[in-house]
Design a protein that fits this description.
Helix content is 35%, strand content 24%. It has 417 residues and is of the alpha/beta class. The strands form 4 sheets. Strands 5-4-13-14-15-12-16 form a 7-stranded mixed sheet. It has a 6-stranded mixed sheet with strand order 7-2-1-11-18-17. Strand 17 (305-306) and strand 18 (309-311) form a beta hairpin. The longest helix has 33 residues, at 351-383. The radius of gyration is 21 Å and the shape is globular. The structure holds flavin-adenine dinucleotide. Flavin-adenine dinucleotide is lined by residues 32-38, 55-58, 68-69, 152-154, 182-185, 188, 205, 207, 248, 293, 313-314, 321, 324-328, 330.
């Protein structure tokens, strides 16, 4: 039963991609990777008059069957591009973010989301990843200036000054005026900028959305609930109007620390969560256990662009998930790229014009996204402390007012254009 909800096939939009994928030869910009960041950027660029080709290595545009929190810094942009109503149609607007101690079961803090829209000009919502991708893909398919291609694994990118050459594993190649690497954590495009590698945190995640009736006991159907404890946490929230329940269980693996290759197994999950409180224990049987994800990030880069090539999304700023911001930051990138590259649309831009547009993109985005990357690590450390540090954290959290947004304004608030 889990399988059927774990993967949403995006059937209609993907078959429309097959029908349209060969249309047109030329595009001003090629985007490598058709995840949330790649498709959001394709649509933002098209809205600004830029022609785009998206090359996705997978056979279909798809997302994993799990939930995604979208904070006002992202939903504001979805609204600007007239996407928010479509996303909201299947999303849930939680009433609160609730922090609980996973061991004692104590309530630590809440963030009241009722006034978020008034405060930040956009809502806080949670959506199924496939539902968001479905909306983005449907818009991209309907947009004549976007060419979408699947089964295109980009293997090489060479900037020749006046154009960029892209080669794919199937022997095809493309020449274009600008390339955006939206190819995620293990980005091929990033290797033009750095020889760094993903840094494994030693934490592993089990995640997925299951029918709500499969969960023996849910913390709440109105809230995003985050249970935090020593070296572990569990996040729970409803999706699709309460039809599905999303659960993400994450823990620090002792077996990883011991250098074992098969680490973070379901048996280790059960061992690590053995001391958690009953509501957390009750959630464990309904966790999807057939797949797990090692949690990795990278350190911030000094540059995301050079010549006619730039990075966005996880390719540019892969982060640990503790602020629930990776996709939100990719959506922020898409808006700024639309605005900056949009200014050279239709002008057969010189290298100087593209470089300038990318420099402006970096100026507007790099510092903020890098701060989010760094802060996500610290936030994870705070969630996972033990002993006296846990006691002090809990006391500090319990002193917070539910409507105290002082430490969040920098993230959710509107930034100057
Ligand atoms: C447990 C967990 C929970 C999270 N929760 C949240 C949350 O609540 N809110 C939030 O905002 N973020 C969250 N994130 C982060 C978010 O999932 C990512 O930041 C986001 O999906 C990144 O999107 P992207 O398009 O940049 O990269 P990806 O989603 O990785 O997409 C990259 C695409 O490029 C393709 N590709 C890769 N290499 C090539 C190539 N060589 N040629 C062609 N195509 C290629 C891939 O197939 C893929 O489709 C979470 C992450 C995790 C791990």
């Amino acid at each position: 039963m889990h399988e059927s909800v774990a993967y949403h096939p995006l059937v209609a939009a993907n078959s429309a991609v097959q029908e349209r994928s060969k249309e047109g030869d030329q595009a001003d910009v090629v985007i490598v990777g058709g995840g949330i960041g790649g498709l959001a950027t394709a649509y933002a660029l098209a809205c600004m008059g830029v022609t785009v080709r998206v090359l996705e290595r997978a056979a279909e545009f798809a997302e994993i069957g799990a939930g995604l929190q979208l904070a006002p810094n992202a939903t504001r942009i979805l609204r600007r591009f007239d996407l928010l109503d479509d996303v909201r149609a299947t999303a849930v607007a939680p009433r609160r973010l609730v922090g609980m101690n996973a061991v004692t079961g104590d309530l630590l803090t809440t963030l009241d989301l009722d006034d978020v829209e008034e405060r930040y000009g956009a809502p806080y919502i949670v959506t199924h990843r496939s539902d968001l991708l479905d909306v983005l893909l449907a818009r991209c398919v309907a947009e004549p200036s976007i060419i979408l291609e699947t089964g295109k694994q980009v293997t090489a990118i060479a900037d020749h000054g006046d154009s960029v050459q892209i080669d794919c594993a199937d022997g095809t190649g493309y020449s274009t005026g600008a390339v955006l690497g939206a190819d995620g954590l293990t980005s091929t495009t990033r290797s033009l900028f750095s020889d760094d590698e993903p840094i494994c945190s030693g934490y592993v995640a089990y995640r997925g959305a299951v029918p709500v009736q499969d969960v023996a006991r849910h913390a709440s159907l109105d809230d995003v609930v985050i249970w935090i404890g020593p070296g572990l946490h569990l996040v729970q929230y409803p999706l699709r109007g309460g039809e599905l329940y999303n659960q993400v269980a994450v823990f620090r693996s002792d077996e990883f620390a011991a250098g074992k290759t098969d680490w973070g197994t379901p048996e280790e999950l059960d061992r690590r969560f053995a001391d958690t409180c009953k509501p957390v224990q009750d959630a464990l049987p309904s966790l999807l256990r057939d797949r797990r994800w090692a949690m990795s990030d990278r350190l911030p880069l000094r540059r995301w662009s050079a010549g006619r090539v730039a990075l966005l999304g996880d390719a540019a700023h892969p982060m640990l998930q503790y602020l629930a911001q990776g996709a939100c930051q990719a959506i922020e990138d898409s808006e700024v790229l639309g605005d900056t590259l949009g200014q050279v649309a239709g002008k057969q831009p010189s290298t100087a014009m593209v470089t300038e547009a990318f420099a402006e993109y970096e100026r507007l985005r790099l510092e903020q996204a890098s701060t989010v990357q760094r802060t996500a690590r610290v936030w994870g450390d705070i969630w996972h402390v033990d002993g006296i540090a846990m006691t002090l954290r809990d006391e500090a959290f319990q002193l917070r007012d539910p409507d105290d947004f002082r430490r969040i304004d920098w993230l959710y608030g509107e930034r100057p254009a």
